[in-house]
Design a protein that fits this description.
Bound molecules: adenosine-5'-triphosphate, magnesium ion
Order of helices and strands: HEHEHEEHEHEHEHHHHHHHEEH
Largest sheet: 5 strands, parallel
Distance between the termini: 39 Å
Helix content: 40-55%
CATH architecture of the largest domain: 3-Layer(aba) Sandwich
Number of helices: 14
Strand content: 5-15%
CATH superfamily of the largest domain: P-loop containing nucleotide triphosphate hydrolases
Length: 376
């Protein structure tokens, strides 16, 4: 009996819980050539959802291109990732080793090579920028122009997803944003911008002074609906030959507040622990194992922040608060006004804390929150 729960990016053929409306809506925007921003905290299923949308679009003969911008380090890095994504997407659409070869002439700035992996005999694709452009901004402009001309000339639809798009900000080259916007608005393609540092991403699209201001449809991904989570867990257990009663499945969903990644991670552990039928005790034990397992990631987070930021994180984990700068809150947690203001900005830009609808600040990740409460 293979464990039916997965915590990697889900491939389009793997079981998926809900997101029916989002899938329909996004596929439709893709077909219509609209630009969309998808935003949600880490591990909510953004990438998996977009892969599914692009898979559907590909089945409708729309060419799909997917570029990952996570932790971009420079403009050169951006150009390279974009070039590789474009060539890979075209190659998937129609093999560049075969008929698709003709498209390469549209991209004189990209040099494409295939090497045969001696172990598998399979070709693997690599790209380089043809002319060593001294100025990477010129290289970026050239490639964006080439894409534009290509889209004008070739008569097929294209959907381009730019994952962790907000990381363009980290390159610290302000001209990149304006240049991307200038070209993207003219491209005959549907763009999906997705990302997890919501504040940073939303500022790109909602700040009047910035080039991408109001240039795309905004879509927020929420946690998964509880009843759908229950059905998903019950069905996954059943299909893998074990039983999970609905009340136990509900306990799993509630324990992780329907947070997509943790739903799978906790169900995975519970499935491992139980013999034939999952019990509430299994869930309790599974949660402890999950916490233990996630500990390394959480330790990495707190090692990467300052003492003041950690103090605020701990304080918010201990008590969700609307007024982080009230004297009472500052005194109780040994914080200073200036310290809270700068830490709050940093932590919310990192999407570690957020303000709920009733304006209370809280830790975004429910399992991290539980770990903080226990660890300090
Ligand atoms: N609809 C879903 N049904 C079931 N599990 C899901 C669903 N969406 C996401 N998950 C779970 O969440 C995990 C994270 O998904 P994914 O990597 O697509 O999220 P992400 O938001 O892109 O994360 P990151 O912020 O790390 O890029 C998946 O491995 C899967 O376990
Ligand atoms: Mg992702």
């Amino acid at each position: 009996m293979n464990n039916p729960f997965h915590t990697d990016i889900l491939e389009p053929d793997q079981p998926f819980c809900n997101r029916v409306d989002e899938l329909r809506e996004l596929t439709s925007h893709g077909r219509n050539g609209m630009n969309v921003v998808i935003f949600a905290p880490r591990r909510y299923g953004k990438t998996s959802l977009v892969k599914r949308v692009q898979h559907r679009l590909a089945q409708e003969n729309i060419c799909v291109i997917y570029a990952q911008f996570m932790r971009l380090v420079s403009v050169e890095d951006l150009v390279h990732r974009l070039a590789k994504a474009i060539i890979s997407g075209l190659h998937e659409y129609e093999s560049i080793l075969d008929k698709g070869k003709r498209w390469l002439s549209h991209f004189p700035s990209i040099q494409t090579t295939f090497t045969i992996d001696p172990a598998t005999g399979m070709p693997s694709l690599d790209v380089q920028m043809t002319k060593r452009q001294l100025d990477p901004m010129v290289a970026l402009e050239t490639i964006l122009e080439e894409v534009g001309k290509f889209l004008e000339k070739e008569n097929f639809q294209v959907c381009i997803a730019l994952d962790e798009f907000q990381d363009i900000v980290d390159i610290k080259e302000p001209r990149v944003e304006a240049l991307l916007r200038e070209h993207i608005q003219r491209h005959k393609a549907s763009y999906i911008f997705l990302g997890s540092r919501r504040r940073v991403l939303l500022d790109i699209f909602n700040n009047r002074g910035r080039p991408f201001y109001q240039s795309a449809i905004m879509m927020e991904l929420a946690t998964l609906p509880e009843d759908e989570c229950v059905d998903f867990i019950v069905n996954q257990f059943a299909q893998a030959g074990k039983k999970c009663p609905a009340d136990v499945a509900r306990a799993i969903a509630e324990k992780v507040e329907q947070y997509p990644y943790y739903l799978q991670a906790l169900a995975y552990r519970a499935f491992e622990l139980c013999e034939k039928e999952c019990t509430l005790e299994n869930v309790t034990k599974a949660y402890e194992i999950l916490l233990e397992n996630e500990r390394y990631g959480y330790q990495g987070i707190i090692q990467g922040i300052s003492t003041g930021q950690l103090k605020l994180l701990r304080a918010i984990a201990a008590e969700e608060q609307a007024a982080l700068t009230s004297n009472n809150f500052l005194q109780t947690h040994g914080l200073t006004l200036g310290g809270v203001q700068s830490a709050r900005k940093f932590l919310s830009e990192q999407d570690l804390i957020e303000q709920t609808a009733d304006k209370h600040w809280r830790i975004v990740d429910p399992v991290f929150r539980a770990w903080l409460q226990r660890a300090f």
